[in-house]
Amino acid sequence: MPIPNTATYRPIRELPDPSDVPRPVRFALVDVFGQGPLTGNPLAVLDLTTFQSGDPPAAWMAAVAREMNQAETTFVFPATPTAHARLRSFTAGRVEVF
């Protein structure tokens, strides 16, 4: 059944779109905790090491994790004086892992 021309799209909620997140964002799909190829846990890793304006909103990262639809999506941020990098991870269900 076709959608009538009078129908309008109304988003359920607005997701933040941080305009200062570098685009394109480099990412990799990796297989972790396995004994060989295709035996582990799928994980998406996004490289935000060039992102210098603080973390993007958690809602944006959760939306990216949902779009990636992997067991976890990890965001890698720039190094700090005490760490080589900072990580934030989300599940496809939008739960921050650590």
Q: How would you explain this protein's 3D organization?
A:
The chain has 98 residues and is of the alpha+beta class. Mean pLDDT is 78; it is low at 1-12. A four-stranded mixed sheet has the order 1-2-3-4, with helices on one face. The radius of gyration is 17 Å and the shape is globular. The chain is built from one helix and four strands.
Strand residues, percent: 25-35%
Distance between the termini: 45 Å
The 3D shape can be described as globular
Please report the number of helical segments: 1
Largest sheet: 4 strands, mixed
The amount of helix comes to 10-25%
Features:
98 residues, alpha+beta, 11% helix, 26% strand, globular, disordered N terminus
Topology record:
Layout lengths: L25 E7 L8 E7 L10 H11 L3 E6 L8 E5 L8
At a glance:
The protein is an alpha+beta fold and 98 residues long. 11% of the residues lie in helices and 26% in strands. Strand 3 and strand 4 form a beta hairpin.
